[in-house]
Design a protein that fits this description.
This is DUF6830 domain-containing protein. InterPro entries: DUF6830, Plavaka. With 826 residues, this protein is α+β, with helices and mostly antiparallel strands. The protein folds into four domains: 239 residues, no CATH class; 155 residues, no CATH class; 38 residues, no CATH class; 229 residues, no CATH class. Helix content is 34%, strand content 17%. Strands 19, 20, 24, 25, 26, 27, 28, 29, 30 and 31 form a ten-stranded antiparallel beta sheet that branches. A six-stranded mixed beta sheet has the order 1-2-10-9-6-13. A hairpin with a 5-residue loop joins β17 and β18. It is globular. About 3% of the residues have low confidence.
């Protein structure tokens, strides 16, 4: 076939002749009540979509077909949960299937999205589908396109004056459409179907609905319940603040209510039917799409959703309580004087008047919230304990792997919040338009009672986050719509996706032909995609950027692959290979004398610290701020230093040491502009080789401020000491303030009880000077956030450039990153 073309028309013709993916179909959708415009449903066969995912050679080794159980130790006492197949629900479904059959869990997602690039306030209601059998580290990567657009659900506008009746008709239309589109999955869940896996093997598959990713209002609509009613339990709004979980709202429970209702009232006599349905806490949908789906259980497939159920709840309620407690001016000032960190949002104007806040801003606010409000004038110990507990709950639950011990901690955190939540009402900070609110009628709060049971049933909540599906809305709906002519955009979206699928299949085939067979594309290759060179086949197909891997670069330098690279190597690792570092090739400006560097960075003891470091030698224990040895009068073998103002640090994941994290930039700049004392970021420094971050926690480490990054320049005719043939750093130490031992006994370096954070104090010598010393740069382990202890009222003289250097007392913010939280909480 001749694939050459000269015009756009010829290009489209060539694309149409390529191998097809799942075919798009359309049908006119008729409704029992008149609508303003005729409705057209565009959809694909869900079985074809799942088959296209299952048979994708890129997923070879990243898709499982058998439920499994993980244990923390060989004694099999503490269960570990991660993928959906590791939970109890997969096992229960497997037990109901014939011997040798495969459970192929269907995951769907739907949410209305604004086509903002178009005129006329256009909306789309995409329905996405994927499989829970695909491992979440692959399924959640946008570059793999594991979420396929299954249908564009029509958005009807009924000619009906009664707003309530109109809403019921819209909900019934939604359920009827899903019942039609997902019908093939129901049939396969009942009788099974032979399908091919990535290796070409035939499997007898059953397709239960195992997860439905959606936000809170749509969750109630899918469950068929009325407003102010839980979609996963039998609780109504008066029970939302209860400290225990109500019985689950099972499929049988809801269907029985519907049958009871229909025995007395015609479902299409809408007025009386809806009125009686509300008495049963139902929304008027008489045939939920899941009512006849074998093995589909709404109380299980309506999974916890981090973005809306947790972070949106935290912003809409917890953040508002804190603003009301401190006052907008005070909390805005405290946020404005926090030090900015590269790659993170800095709230220069505060948070009280933030507009169009996204999920990312929600996370950035929460990472600072507790240390910012701690010790404020109106914040009681019970108040801060309640907020700390629910924050712990949110952060524990975001882990990619959870075990029974952590789930017990989550239960304890939620119970502590409920025990202390009366302090929030007592403070009068839960407010509405008409003044203080003295109840807990918050649907998202009630959802939290179902999180731990859902984890045991379906695996970790991280895999069900709407972050991935909302990104899919961009690639599957918004981008194609932006290329349309603004008329009949649904059909044009489908045609765009059809052609894109054909091109993708063509690229896959040609890449396989170019790279040869895919026998070496095994599971280990895909699992290690973040920390190894990409497989040639993946490199040619992935639209995502390749993750930076400084560990690989460092190994290449050590192996001599770059003989002309300057030394010391600008990319290197710690001795135990847990941290990698990368500096710019060239130092900043000209080389400077030790005295000039000392003056420029306001570090008067730099020379003494450097000479003491050399005199101690490589075999001496590393100390920061301790007693220095008596310095000899020998002339040092160097006079000049080369300076760097930043370093990139890359570490490994707490839960998977093979998983590399995104590099972080750590600053060490001299005084300039608003940075009156320089810009040196707080870091964690290893001082004992027997302790390994992150598993060791703070043991064997010191909390410091990075002031200078440098390497020495040997004098002509001299040989520099071996200790200086590396990058060095001058750091200043902070001490942990002693706290009562939570288990009894003597005070020690323990977290403060109500916040769970370590209190820090700048370490000073007897003469008042700050304790500092020289350490090898490869001893640095992580970037930290030290939040000033503002006290009852913040010092109005502070700025974002001076808050770290002018304050003496700080909080070690354990919520700064999820990795830091998991490390300090275990």
């Amino acid at each position: 076939m001749n694939l050459s073309f000269k015009t756009a028309k010829e290009l489209r013709s060539r694309i149409e002749s390529l191998t097809k993916g799942p075919l798009w179909k359309s049908t006119t959708w008729k409704t029992p009540y008149p609508t303003k415009k005729p409705l057209t449903l565009y959809y694909r066969d869900p079985i074809e979509c799942l088959q296209s995912l299952m048979s994708n050679p890129l997923l070879k080794g990243s898709i499982d077909f058998t439920p499994f159980k993980l244990w923390k130790t060989a004694e099999r006492v503490v269960r570990v949960y991660n993928e959906w197949l590791s939970g109890d629900a997969a096992w229960k479904i497997q037990d109901q299937l014939p011997e040798g059959a495969t459970v192929l869990g269907a995951v769907v997602s739907s949410d209305k999205t604004q086509l903002s690039t178009m005129t006329g306030n256009r909306q789309a209601h995409p329905l996405l589908i994927t499989s829970a059998n695909i491992r979440m580290n692959c399924r959640m990567k946008a570059s793999f396109h594991a979420f396929l657009l299954l249908a564009l659900v029509p958005i009807p506008k009924f000619i009906e004056r009664d707003v309530e009746i109109r809403g019921v008709l819209e909900s019934r239309t939604f359920h009827a459409v899903l019942d039609f589109v997902l019908g093939p999955l129901k049939k396969v869940a009942e009788i099974g179907l032979m399908m091919s896996d990535p290796l070409g093997w035939r499997r007898f598959c059953f397709t239960p609905l195992v997860a439905y990713i959606l936000d809170t209002p749509e969750s109630a609509m899918v469950a068929g319940v009325a407003g102010k009613t839980s979609s996963v339990t039998t609780a109504s709004y008066k029970n939302f603040g209860d400290a225990y979980r109500h019985p689950p709202r099972t499929r049988d429970y809801t269907v029985q209510q519907l049958h009871q209702l229909e025995r007395h009232t015609d479902p299409w006599d809408l007025g009386p039917y809806v009125k009686k349905a509300k008495l049963l806490r139902l929304n008027g949908v008489h045939r939920p799409f899941w009512h006849d789906w074998p093995m589909a259980e709404p109380s299980l497939f309506l999974t916890p959703e981090i973005l809306h159920h947790w972070f949106k709840f935290a912003y809409d309620h917890i953040v508002k309580w804190c603003i009301a407690a401190l006052g907008a001016a005070e909390i805005d000032f405290r946020f404005s004087v926090l030090r900015p960190h590269t790659g993170m949002r800095h709230f220069r104007e505060g948070i009280s008047k933030a507009k169009q806040v996204t999920g990312r801003e929600h996370r950035d606010i929460l990472r600072y919230l507790i240390p910012v409000i701690a010790e404020a004038k109106v914040v009681t110990k019970a108040f801060i304990t309640a907020l700390t507990s629910i924050m712990n709950f949110f952060y524990y639950g975001q882990a990619p792997e959870l075990n029974d011990d952590v789930l017990d901690q989550m239960d304890h955190a939620l119970a502590t919040f409920h025990r202390c939540k009366s302090a929030i009402l007592k403070a009068g900070v839960r407010k509405g338009k008409n003044g203080p609110i003295n109840n807990w009628h918050i649907p998202k709060l009630e959802f939290l009672q179902s999180v731990v049971p859902a984890i045991r049933a379906n695996g970790v909540p991280l895999q069900w986050t709407a972050d991935v599906t909302e990104h899919a809305h961009i690639t599957e709906v918004k981008d194609p719509a932006s290329n349309s002519n603004n008329q009949g955009y649904e059909a044009q979206i489908c045609r765009h996706l059809d052609r894109r699928d054909k091109c993708h299949l063509f690229n896959l085939a040609t890449s396989m032909e170019t790279t040869g067979n895919t026998e070496d594309l095994d599971g280990d290759d895909l699992d290690a995609a973040d920390h190894q060179e990409p497989h040639p086949l993946l490199a040619g197909l992935s639209s995502g950027r390749t993750a930076v891997n400084y560990f690989t670069y460092s190994a290449s330098l050590r192996d001599g692959e770059y003989p002309n690279a300057p030394t010391p190597f600008r990319t290197f690792t710690s001795e135990n290979k847990v941290t990698a570092f990368h500096l710019n090739r060239d130092h900043v400006g000209h080389r400077v004398t030790i005295e000039d560097a000392s003056t420029r960075f306001c570090v008067p003891d730099l020379k003494d610290a450097l000479l003491a470091f050399i005199q101690r030698g490589p075999t001496s224990p590393l100390t920061i701020g301790g007693r220095r040895p008596k310095l000899d009068d020998t002339q040092p073998a160097f006079t000049y230093l080369q300076l760097w103002h930043s370093v990139r640090i890359q570490t490994r994941s707490y839960h998977d040491s093979q998983q590399l994290l995104e590099p972080e930039t750590v600053k060490a700049e001299p005084p300039k502009g608003v940075w009156k004392s320089g810009r040196g970021d707080p870091v964690l420094v290893n001082i004992d080789d027997d302790y390994h971050w992150p598993r060791s926690g703070l043991a064997g480490h010191a909390i410091c401020q990075l002031k200078i990054i440098f390497c020495v320049v040997p004098r002509s005719g001299f040989v520099a000491p071996a200790e200086t043939d590396q990058f060095l750093a001058y750091v200043q130490r902070f001490d942990i303030v002693s706290q009562p031992n939570p288990e009894g006994g003597a005070n020690g370096p323990f977290p403060e009880s109500s916040t769970g954070m370590f209190q820090l104090k700048r370490s000073r010598r007897a003469d008042g000077s700050v304790r500092g010393d020289i350490v090898p740069l490869h001893r640095v382990r992580a970037r930290l956030e030290l939040t000033p202890r503002f006290g009852k009222v913040a010092n109005k003289k502070l700025t974002s450039g001076t808050s770290l250097d002018y304050c003496e007392d700080f909080w070690l913010d354990k919520w700064f990153t999820k990795e830091l939280f998991w490390t300090l909480s275990h």
